[in-house]
Design goal:
Oligomer: single chain
Distance between the termini: 18 Å
Strand content: 15-25%
Number of strands: 15
CATH architecture of the largest domain: Alpha-Beta Barrel
Number of helices: 11
CATH class of the largest domain: Alpha Beta
Number of domains: 2
Largest sheet: 8 strands, parallel
Order of helices and strands: EEEHHHHEHEHEHEHEEHHEHEEEEE
Structural class: alpha/beta
Shape: globular
Radius of gyration: 20 Å
Strand order of the largest sheet: 4-5-6-7-8-9-10-11
CATH topology of the largest domain: TIM Barrel
Helix content: 25-40%
């Protein structure tokens, strides 16, 4: 008989993490633990109110959720049927982890991706109160192959910021405005930024405006990526010919299975693909990293902003992901044995 335990997990950040629109001081997630015989699978959801999700809503859902009485590790379709997207993320990942352990295979092997290369991950530089603080962070990351720079804060000179960063950093620069600009502003700023060799611009305007995104893409010298506009696979159709790429996040779309399907849909529509993350533990980050060979870019650095990660999994070495050994996700609690 399978058992399910779901708990809230609050993980303080090393310092406040600010983007256009909000500031985080902690990663608030939900961790699911599914046990079957002597096997245990771990999963995680990282809900954001931006997408209408919350830890409280997930916990309320699981308070009345019951696993099918005769369900096993390979009963995913029945176990996940009707489960809301945010709650499904933790449950789906835990089932992948459990199945891998039962079969003695990693999630990469289950997906047919074992041994394939992954792109390096970018590391994120958040918005700060002044340029000097941002530059100090960039100096620490100067050997990282790619940086994602958060822009779009009201009253901040984004062009001057990128100019200062480019004067000291030679790697790939990606920018993310988190819906902080309007269409005309986006085109004007991106033309000014063209000379700094910017790889892409992520979600420059508020979601829900695919025609404006197309207008921007037709005029921008820098490729446009959708994030908040691309929550799950069903939302990709309206973005056709409006953006160059989409950012797939397990926490947005509902887990490993949904992310795999979303990547396939994105490729069918001709999009380039990034896998991104939230502020999250190594459970979600490692699950996302297993999908890395299917993508063009990775932005999986959520655990690096935590003061303490209660799980160990994928490791970060100079912007390169080092996958854990072991079956399933390869994730283990880093707390006391009781946490397992």
């Amino acid at each position: 008989m399978m058992t399910l335990d779901v708990r809230e997990c609050e993980m303080p950040l090393t310092r406040p993490f600010r983007v256009a629109g909000f500031t985080l001081t902690a990663a608030n997630t939900v961790v699911a633990r599914i046990a079957w015989n002597d096997y245990v699978g771990y999963g995680e959801s990282a809900p954001l109110e931006r997408y209408g999700d919350s830890v409280a809503a997930i916990m309320a859902y699981f308070a009345s959720y019951k696993l099918p009485a005769d369900a096993g590790p390979f009963s995913a379709a029945r176990i996940l049927a009707g489960v809301p997207r945010a709650a499904r993320c933790s449950l789906d990942i835990a089932l992948f982890d459990l199945r891998g352990k039962v079969l003695g295979a990693s999630v990469s092997e289950l997906l047919g991706l074992e041994g394939l290369d992954r792109p390096p991950t970018s590391l994120t530089v958040p918005i700060e109160d002044d340029v000097d603080t941002v530059l100090a962070r960039v100096r620490l990351l100067r050997d990282t192959p790619a940086l994602k720079i958060k822009v779009g804060a009201a009253g901040f000179d984004d062009v001057a910021l990128i100019e200062a960063i480019r004067s000291m950093y030679t790697g790939a620069i990606r920018i993310d405005a988190n819906e902080g600009w309007n269409a005309e502003q986006t085109v004007a700023i991106l033309h000014e930024l063209e000379r700094f060799d910017i790889e892409l611009c992520e979600q420059p305007i508020p979601a829900g405006n695919p025609e404006q995104l197309r207008w921007i893409s037709e005029r921008s010298p820098i490729p446009i990526m959708a994030d908040e506009d691309a929550v799950e696979a069903s939302q990709l159709g309206p973005l056709f010919r409006s953006v160059y790429a989409v950012n797939v996040k397990l926490a947005k779309c509902g887990g490993l299975g949904a992310a795999y399907d979303m990547i396939a849909a994105a490729r069918a529509l001709g999009f380039k693909v990034m896998i991104g993350c939230m502020a999250e533990s190594s459970i979600l980050a490692t699950a996302a990293a297993h999908l890395g060979p299917l993508t063009d870019w990775l932005d999986i650095d959520g655990p690096t902003v935590l003061a303490h990660d209660p799980f160990s999994g994928v490791r970060f070495e100079g912007g390169h992901l080092v996958m854990p050994h072991g079956c399933g996700l390869g994730v283990h609690p880093s707390e006391s044995p009781e946490a397992a």
